[in-house]
Amino acid sequence: MSSPTLAQRLLVTGSLPRLGVKTRAPVRIGFLTPLSGPEESWGRPGLDGCRLWAEGLNARGGLMVGGRRHPIEIVARDSATGAAATRAAAHELVERLDCRLILTLGGDSFAPALPWLMKTRALVATLLPSDLSPDTPYLIAPAEVHPLFNVTGVEWLAKSRPAARRVALCSQTDSLGLPSLAVYRAAFEAAGHARVKELRYAPAETDAEGIVRAMLAEQPDVLCWCSSAPPMIHALTEAAHAQGFTGEILACTADDYPRMIARTSAAFMARYTFQFPDFDDPALADTAFFFHRPEAFFAAYGARFPGSWSAVSWEYASILDLWHAAVESAETTDPVSVLAAMKRSQIMPHAFGPARWWGAEVFGIDNALVGDWPVVRIEGGRAKIVEFGSVLGWLEAHGPRLTEHLGALGQLWHQRLRPAPRRRQISLPASEASDPRSA
């Protein structure tokens, strides 16, 4: 597994000859992720990356399973059209189309389908390890360990900008936002920052100006957008610039950061720290990471889908790389056998280096692949990796602190399996939003 995967070599070099074997029936991969609505930007770029991956593999004969080649087919369905439609899509993908792997963002939109998929022993890969629990033995988080990796940005900021100590946070109140808020709370507390303001807003909220105004009222040195959706991150960042903020900004993502630079300034965005690099970053050029030839994938993606590279453009494709290697090892696409092959070794390659299956302490099951993660800044108008932080190292040092904050927001696995009590939704105007001291 230290050499480039077949799919990556086909995609970026086309250097392998066609093998004289008969192409068989297609192997289908289901993609059940938001393709509309406010979370579309977490799904559609990833679908494009998967299609690019599949086209590269198919161009040289397809997937080798037990000495026979099969074309790969990506079958996409939208999980943002309601619970009934999501459940129906899951049934279609598994029962009628025989998809051997289901890729999903996870979270609220996917939750209606998850119990049935686990009963059928479907192999499902999510980008949200907070979906994991002992009741989801066939659900894995092998690419992104959102929001755990956000601790690395906080650690870097604390070391590199020690004078920036007063933090104001905002987060949406959904299955992406609340776990992220808990992680940022724990990370800032561990770093000794003062949390001077916290706003929680409904996922459909659009009053970025009001949110930022309320945050700035406490005179923070750092504004943290947590894991807000890309459109909201753009709106919050532009509002902070318009309202004269001169401190640091921290967020999970900075998708389409050239647009943010154009609408603010290069100097303003030079104080922005996030977690997702461009894949032509020099820090990725000579690595032994599992996702090989990242610069070539980045270039191919940009040529095919110009201007759409995002935090998720590569993530689902990297899961396919891991799945492909496990299929070759197991010599079958059977979901349970492939999962066993993926987890045969506790340590395995990850997008950014060696990683370990982890999670029992927080999720009740070791189905999250956790390793190092990059911290990214914008320098000279381009994203640049400034450090690879150890997520496992932070968890070993501060695990109980994280558990405390996840529990406070009802995000531990056993809490998520209980029906939540009805609560009044916190909404803006920002003057009515929650204060962290009363949350």
Task: Identify the notable features of this structure and list them briefly.
alpha/beta; 439 residues; signal; Leu-bd; 16 helices; Rossmann fold; nine-stranded mixed sheet; ABC transporter substrate-binding protein; disordered N terminus
What does this structure look like?
It comes from Paenirhodobacter hankyongi. Belongs to the leucine-binding protein family. By secondary structure, the protein is of the alpha/beta class. It is built from 16 helices and 16 strands. Strands 8, 9, 10, 11, 12, 13, 14, 15 and 16 form a nine-stranded mixed sheet that branches. Strand 13 and strand 14 form a beta hairpin. The chain is globular and about 65 Å long. The N and C termini lie far apart (47 Å). The N terminus and C terminus are likely disordered.
Walk me through the topology:
Layout: H1 6-12, E1 27-33, H2 44-58, E2 63-65, E3 68-70, E4 72-78, H3 83-96, E5 101-104, H4 114-119, E6 124-126, E7 139-140, H5 150-160, E8 166-172, H6 177-191, E9 194-201, H7 208-216, E10 222-226, H8 230-242, E11 248-251, H9 257-263, H10 266-269, E12 272-274, H11 294-304, H12 315-330, H13 335-342, E13 347-350, E14 353-358, H14 360-363, E15 368-379, E16 382-390, H15 391-408, H16 413-416
Parallel strand pairs: 1-4, 1-5, 5-6, 6-7, 8-9, 8-10, 10-11, 11-12
Antiparallel strand pairs: 2-3, 12-15, 13-14, 14-15, 15-16
